[in-house]
Amino acid sequence: xxxxxxxPSATEIVFALGLGDDLVGVTDECDHPAEAVTKPxxxxxxxxxxxxxxxxEIDGAVREQLAAGQPLYLLDTELLxxxxxxxxxxxxxxxxxxxxxxxxxxxxxxxxxxxxxxxSLDPNTLAEVIAQVETVGTLLGREPEAAAIAADLxxxxxxxxxxxxxxxxxxxxxxxxxxxxxxxxxxxxxxxxIVGGTPVLAEKGQPSRETAWHEIRAAAPEVIVVMPCGYYxxxxxxxxxxxxxxxxxxxxxxxxxGNVFAVDATSxxxxxxxxxxxxxxxxxxxxxxxIYPAPPDGTIVKLG
Length: 304
Description:
The protein is an alpha/beta fold. Helices cover 41% and strands 17% of the residues. α5 runs antiparallel to α6.
């Protein structure tokens, strides 16, 4: 079976199921496991590349592209025609994150691949993220492997949830973007609840939403986790440095008490794949470091 993955989370699932050799195309963002970077790139960003951009510039470029009705990702239709994939994994959850299903289907019809199966992976909660492992496993003929992976992930989630019942709740704000500020949505509020926190300016299963610094100050979060979508740990640290001294941010209980953290968002929070459970365990430590085990180095940094 030939598989094309148009989202990094799907690539991670395919490798976890032991089908990495069947991947004939991935995205330019697929980098886990390491073997993923050796695969042909079938989807890449349409945004200008080549220089470091600020959060505001990236946001502006995305909005401009969408307003003009232009795609954010480019498909290599020649690669698809040559490889003739049997299954294509994509998503419709976030138009900023990957090629949407409609665009994929149009490309397949245009190049003459009407029989390729296109599966859209669109989880809104952590439970749905884990369940999609089983969905992909069923489609790809790896039901036992998928069931084992999902069972392990659920057991780890249950262990975190059980510990959370023994600790006091704290209010947590997850910052998904800084300029303009966005609160993280979809599975992140649920993850906050599982670790014993109370999500602020966010609702479980709902999209991320634009907010403002004065709203963040008014919400008075006790813990703030900086997780810019698509940023690794060092990039998240650098981004946090641009607003840590913002008066309204600095006036939150989290900032005043030194409970602001930057995390490797790309690996453990942005991508709805198996490593979200690693992110859950990282988040648990950030909210209650005296109760939960310390996460591995290189996953989280305390900023203050």
